[in-house]
Model the fold of this input.
Amino acid sequence: MPQTSFTIATRGPGFTEITAEVARWVGGSGVAEGLLTLFLRHTSCSLLIQENADPSVRDDLETFFRRLIPPADAPASRWITHRSEGPDDMPAHLRAALLPVCQSIPVADGRMALGTWQGIYLFEHRSAPHRRQIVAHLA
Done:
């Protein structure tokens, strides 16, 4: 059973597409049919399958989550007590609690069975760049 990990460098908040990198690994794994599991090893970012054709979809998602869960220093967020790592930390944990950190993707004919407009994204919720780890398992 092939297993690997990917280290993804983010540029701060937003989406980083990892579809091509994961597809290369799946294609070279020798597994024709199976199930790919991707697990994100962090609590302040998320792993999403989203549209990869129109970037405005990702822009709207970012705006929605910023409006839904503003930074801890915003007046509406006075209730937040965890502030030791900055005003973006607890909101990042809240967003990650609402969104997945794990995805399962069928593999058929040695390729991920994603839809035409689907891509795999790491959704960074922190303000600063980070290096994130995703464990991939294919069985």
About this structure: The CA atoms of residues 61 and 88 lie 17 Å apart.
